[in-house]
Amino acid sequence: xxxxxxxxxxxxxxxxSADQRCIFVKTTPDCAQEDGFVDYLRIAFCLFPFxxxxxxxxxxxxxxxxxxxxxxxxxxxxxxxxLSAISTTLRLTHNVAGVTFLALGNGAPDxxxxxxxxSRPHTAGLAVGALFGAGIFxxxxxxxxxxxxxxxxxxxRPFLRDVIFYMAAVFWTFVILYKHQITLLEALGYIGxxxxxxxxxxxxxxxxxxxxxxxxxxxxxxxTQTPDFRSDSDDENPSYPSGSIQDYEKIxxxxxxLPLEVLMLLTVPVVDPDKDDRNWKRPLNCLHLxxxxxxxxxxxxxxxxxxxxxxxxxxxxxxxxxxxxFLSAIVFCTTTNEQPPRYHFIFSLLGFLVSATWISxxxxxxxxxxxxxxxxxxxxxxxxxxTLLAWGNSIGDCFSDITIARQGYPRMAISxxxxxxxxxxxxxxxxxxxxxxxxxxxVLMLELEGLLGWVLAGALGxxxxxxxxxxxxxRFHLGRAYGVFLLLFYIFFLVVALLTEFGKLHIRGV
Length: 510
Fold this sequence. Notes:
The protein is mainly alpha-helical. The chain has helices spanning 18-27, 40-47, 53-89, 94-99, 101-118, 124-149, 156-179, 184-220, 246-250, 254-267, 282-299, 316-334, 345-377, 381-406, 410-439, 450-473, 480-501, and strands at residues 2-4, 152-153, 181-183, 309-310, 314-315, 443-447, 477-478. The strands form three sheets. Strands 1-6-3 form a three-stranded mixed β-sheet. A two-stranded antiparallel ribbon has the order 2-7. The longest helix has 37 residues, at 53-89. The protein is globular and about 75 Å long.
């Protein structure tokens, strides 16, 4: 199977006359709707007259902002809390939970968007552009803003650890893109590299704990020297902030957020281990046993699975409804309003599954909508990925990390910058390619979108190398001058990328 970012045939629609475009998008395979509930191309070219196309674009942009808000809201208020409850139930340490479950929670929009984009040959460039673009945005703009807001001395060993692992992930991806193919073993290597990263975090935390214990022992023995382990502490970053998008939500229209949040509350259970009742709401949780499975069935494969009939007679959605009502009745009759049942933790698993389904559905709509925008404006998928998709998925982290820095925790903010994107890169590419390898052929062909793809990969690699070299040269102190440098680097990269996209910069033969 070939996943490439070159322009598909659907982009030719803009070369046709207005009266031919509707027929073209209906008959061209690359314009066919593969996933999602809305056929944006048919809406743009069949429902709206040619002179009203700008109105359609305006509506699409508003809808795109709403989808980004839905991704952020679902991840921060429903997906992350349930993952936190699962990690608490499993009694995981803060470090392990931070680099596994909570990293998944914060990176859910990026990972799901990448997986959806990789599932379609003509949108794979969105995944590459988004993952690399978000990496550049986070390591330059977000890190630069943190340094501007609160100059500080970064934790040396955790910082170098994260940068080295991220450089390894980027280099691995660069080699695969250079080869234009990825095998099953190489895709599994992404997951394996993240396992090594998690083990490194655990081991470094154990070593720090032993050193700290040894220090206390020497002090009790009368030693007057007090070595400073603070700069090497992994406890500075026990977990990636689970509310990474909450600050972003506050600046968006409350009118649009309220109905969405009500819908989430009616379909997604949330277990809170910090509360005495663990957020047990008997009538609402019983309703979740009905609405949650229905959401999963009716959104799986864009509703195609839920509309199937068992032996041609009984619909799947009806069986799901009856089963949910039966379980709901049992729970309601065997529990009380005051005391959560012993099996209440199962609701965190249900909440995880349902919120992941909502995120996946929203990500599918985002990818389809961005593909339509690219067709209308004749933009490549890569440039849409490194701009709109990367910005939409990263802006919440930007606000939250800046807020964390202002509150006096710049080390946690900078650790979240690098630690979170390691997970996004490895799982976004790894899982996205694995799903295609399992469903299709043993080798997956990958191609970048001409020179722009290599500009993107080279810029990310260069930014990481500069961080790896310049930060130690500054004795790990990030001041405002370095913050300005990072922001200027991103502006320069963005200018070069856009000039390349519009054909102003090119290399012969590329």
